[in-house]
Design goal:
This protein is of the alpha+beta class. The chain is built from 2 helices and 5 strands, in the order E-E-E-E-E-H-H. 26% of the residues are buried.
Length: 106
């Protein structure tokens, strides 16, 4: 992988898009302390969809993101992140769009 696309040195996608997912991916669907996206970091979108807190804003930034975009950064729930986060790949179209929004090189 090109070092320019190291997610731990970028975070642009986490601060560019709404991250919405099916409610069953959240821990609340399985009970507290179980696997899934921590319920405290989600907000409802519809009866069947949740989104990561902070991503449904005009200037989105996921509440699980820690650090500055373009610098040492990381996801505090990486092992339990929702499916949309798992689908974005370093260097794909979504990644490059997010990087451009934050002035990072393609």
């Amino acid at each position: 992988m090109d070092p320019a696309f190291d997610c731990q040195q970028c975070g642009a996608c986490c601060a560019s898009f709404r991250v919405s997912f099916y409610w069953a991916e959240a821990e609340s669907a399985h009970g507290p302390g179980t696997f899934g996206v921590p319920a405290a970091l989600t907000e409802p979108l519809s009866p069947h969809l949740l989104c990561m807190q902070g991503t449904n804003a005009r200037q989105p930034r996921c509440a699980a993101l820690q650090g500055p975009v373009g610098g040492p950064i990381g996801c505090t729930i990486y092992e339990h992140r929702p499916s949309p986060c798992r689908e974005v790949m370093p260097g794909d179209a979504q990644c490059l769009t997010a990087r451009a929004r934050h002035g990072l090189p393609a």
